[in-house]
Amino acid sequence: MKVLAVFYNEKTGEMNIRCDTAVLSSDVKTYEESIKPLLPPEGEEVGDHLCRLLCLAHTESVLRIKAMRLLGMGDYTARGLLHKLYDTEVLGEKAEKEIARKIVIFCVKKGYIREKDYARRLIDRWIGDCRGEYYMLQKMREKKFRPGLAEELLDDEKKEQMRLALFDYVKNKRPGDKKERDRLVASLARRGYGYGDISDAMEAMGKEEFA
Q: What is residue 206's predicted lDDT score, i.e. its pLDDT?
């Protein structure tokens, strides 16, 4: 790989190195301190060590930009973002996992990823949609929340809110015959409610709670 031209933006701190095989960029100061003294004159070959540094710097810049873009479009868990970065192709190859982990750690430290706040918002939304605990646990696993967080947040208060949401849902449906009742039970099971909770709600119909 030969260096054809080097551009350094003093205002943004970004360095672009145009090589014969790719254009590499870096806005990572730790790399620039190592790279700048080693850059050969334009048109000369790049040594193996410098080539490695250039590729690492470029990969980190690409992953950092992708992470910021993804977080700008919506919430992510740390493991969810890491999974997205692992799938990124840079310079024709999958990005190095160590660099992806470094970017995610950076995002957590900066407060760009707040898993507990994200989980609380999801749980409140799911309760409003009349979703049960099994549904929430499954969805939180799919979104790659850290282990134990779901159980931590689904405390007695949240479970009571789920119970009341279930009772309101059944009250509004008020199944008539057995066929309607069976359809409602199946629907509630798909929504993530356990048989015990469903039975309590069905039995409560007509009682004072539903008066």
A: 58
Architecture of the domain spanning 3-109: Orthogonal Bundle (1.10)
In this structure, how many other beta carbons lie within 10 angstroms of the beta carbon of residue 51? 17
Residue whose structure tokens are 């929430």: 136
Using alpha carbons, list the distances in angstroms from residue 129 to 124, 168, 188, 192: 9, 11, 12, 11
Count CA within 13 A, CB hemisphere, residue 62.
23
What pTM does this model have? Answer: 0.74
Residue 88 has φ and ψ, to the nearest 5°, of -80, 135
Listed as ranges, residues in the chain with pLDDT below 50 are 1-2, 4, 20, 28, 208-211
Round to whole Å and give the CA distance between 157 and 161.
Answer: 6
How is the chain split into domains, by residue range? 3-109, 122-210
d(CA 90, CA 68): 17
Q: Look-up: residue for tokens 């850290």? A: 146
Collapsing DSSP to helix, strand or coil, 24 comes out as: strand
Distance CA 95, CA 55 (A): 10
